[in-house]
UniProtKB/TrEMBL annotation:
Its main location: cytoplasm. Belongs to the SUA5 family. It comes from the Bacteria. This is Threonylcarbamoyl-AMP synthase. L-threonine binds at T40, H72, R127, A147, S187. NCBIfam families: L-threonylcarbamoyladenylate synthase. Required for the formation of a threonylcarbamoyl group on adenosine at position 37 (t(6)A37) in tRNAs that read codons beginning with adenine.
Amino acid sequence: MKTKRWFVDVMDELSTNDPQIAQAAALLRENEVVAFPTETVYGLGANAKSTDAVKKIYEAKGRPSDNPLIVHIADISQLDGLTGPAPDKAKILMKRFWPGALTLILPCKPGALSPRVTAGLDTVAVRMPDHPLALALIRAAGLPIAAPSANLSGKPSPTKAEHVAHDLDGRIAGMMDGGSTGIGVESTVLSCAGETPVLLRPGGITKEQIEAEIGPILVDKGIADQNEQPISPGMKYTHYAPSAPLVISEGSPERIQTLIQEYQQAGKRVGVLTTEENADFYSADYVKSCGRRDQLETVAAALYDALRSFDEEKVDFIIAESFPDTGVGLAIMNRLMKAAGGRVIR
């Protein structure tokens, strides 16, 4: 399959009638899959109503079919055909954070979507992205769009079109190149299906921001038992992982430097994921800074690109510094823990 690629300047005023957007939307209506940028990461979109279309997402990504997908909409009115009445707290969050990096899990109307989108559950994950190209594409298609991240399953999510091309060129019908994404980690996923909302995946909207609007919420540990069915995207299987084994160190830079030397003496090519404050301290074979520790938004935006760079440098082992698990740091640590398979050196 030849993947069609469109380059779109997102700084221009975009219209559903723009030829490139119209062509991509036509592919979606034909039940093909198209990658497109959002404010979080690049998504791999397909008609959420068509099982044939959604099946192509799973095939392209190599994604297990019991992992549900997020449905992207461009207007609140689209919810009427997809979900039951939204709880009051969900309405408050929609008004405050949509369009934006918040996914809400709501009761799904029977028959509204392909069962492959919900993985057979009676709920659906929905969000409205805050990106002009994504919104224009969804409106032009006239469909709810199911879209996980546009990468091979288990690999770091794509924040640049080049990442999408590396993983999926020749496996999908089309790709819209809108430059780098802004937030750099996926949306926050919050279940509103019960009486008290539950944070299932930390992301671009922080727990603190949510609680400022609706009061205390519950927090899932974020690690699903391998025999359980996940109720939210990103809760099951290893995610975000470079090829080399990765561990998180909660120790001091001096402790990390000792680990580097131990692995190098064993003949390993060692990579370190760090921040600007410590980058010059380490003698690893490859040192990658992903921003400043006092500006965790910069770390989140650069995280996946940094993880992918370790594959390019062909390291044998990766040591990642840990981060505070508050604010966006919770999302950073969630992604690192997934990439490390829970391996932490204390």
